[in-house]
């Protein structure tokens, strides 16, 4: 048995626009609601949600039967957590709060076997189809998507140097934390935030590095994709549910005699 290609990794390399959705509700049944939609990628979040390894596994199993690639945001730049998620078969990882080149190198190293990194070897993992994938060790580094998240002004200033680290497939700008770092907590759409992000993003685009982000405004998400961002998440499962719930309630209540 041979390792299947990672469609998301290949799409990023070709600069194909990838529309995504943030997944936070920690349940494989909820994942089944969004899976048939056809998003190019989803982000299963372990940093800001109560996801654990079993809930992540269940959600990955759901998306594995669809065209959607499930990327996991690991809780931190922790080689042990990375090892466990890759052994579970995570197609790719998003590393939060990368601040400099050294942290970027550490993230990449956690995804690679020696001598290229520090990932431990487990031959009978789910990722290897329990030992059935004969070329897993030799090919997995080329297939696993490695995304790094920049979330401070200092990190954005070092974006080009971070992007030069070998083994990175995309740079993700986190407008929420960047806004907070600028003294604008709770204002990720503030124009000054994007006046910082967009020039840095354009420099990365010019270097051929795919750039992504998360915004909850579908019009702005479309705008970013049309401006050259490669992978953009345009909503979260929880925000979609909350908004639809509020709108339904308000519509009925406002129509009462």
Question: Any overview of this molecule?
Answer:
With 257 residues, the protein is an alpha/beta fold. It is 44% helix and 16% strand. It contains 12 helices and 8 strands. It has helices at 7-13, 28-34, 53-64, 79-87, 101-110, 136-143, 153-157, 159-163, 175-181, 191-206, 218-226, 237-254, and strands at 18-23, 41-45, 69-73, 92-95, 145-150, 170-173, 211-214, 231-236. The mean pLDDT is 98.
List the domain count as a whole number: 1
CATH architecture: Alpha-Beta Barrel
The global form is: globular
The structural class is alpha/beta
Number of strands: 8
The averaged pLDDT comes out at 98
Largest sheet: 8 strands, parallel, barrel
Fraction of residues in helix: 40-55%
CATH class value: Alpha Beta
CATH topology: TIM Barrel
**Can you tell me the residue ranges where pLDDT is under 50 for at least 5 consecutive residues?**
none
How are the strands ordered across the major sheet? 1-2-3-4-5-6-7-8
Secondary-structure element series: HEHEHEHEHHEHHEHHEHEH
Distance between the termini: 65 Å
Strand content: 15-25%
Number of helices: 12
């Amino acid at each position: 048995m041979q390792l299947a290609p990672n469609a998301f990794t290949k799409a990023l390399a070709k600069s194909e626009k990838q529309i995504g959705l943030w997944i936070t509700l920690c349940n494989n049944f909820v994942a089944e609601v969004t899976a048939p939609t056809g998003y190019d990628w989803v982000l299963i979040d372990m940093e800001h949600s109560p996801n654990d390894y079993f809930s992540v596994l269940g959600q990955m199993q759901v998306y594995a039967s669809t065209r959607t690639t499930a990327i996991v945001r690991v809780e931190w730049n922790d080689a042990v957590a990375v090892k466990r998620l890759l052994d579970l078969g995570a197609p790719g990882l998003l590393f939060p709060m990368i601040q400099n080149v050294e942290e970027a190198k550490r993230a990449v190293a956690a995804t690679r076997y020696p001598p290229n990194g520090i990932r431990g070897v487990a031959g009978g993992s789910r990722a290897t189809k329990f030992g059935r994938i004969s070329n897993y060790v030799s090919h997995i580094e080329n297939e696993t998507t490695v995304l790094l998240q920049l979330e401070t002004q200092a990190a954005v200033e070092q974006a080009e140097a971070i992007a030069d680290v070998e083994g990175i497939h995309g740079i993700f700008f986190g407008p929420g934390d960047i806004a907070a770092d600028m003294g604008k907590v709770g204002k990720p759409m503030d124009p000054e935030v994007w006046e910082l992000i967009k020039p840095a993003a354009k420099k990365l685009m010019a270097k051929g590095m795919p750039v992504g982000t998360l915004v909850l405004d579908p019009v702005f998400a479309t705008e970013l994709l049309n401006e050259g961002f490669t992978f953009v998440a345009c909503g979260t499962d929880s925000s979609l549910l909350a908004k639809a719930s509020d709108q339904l309630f308000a519509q009925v209540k406002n129509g009462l005699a």
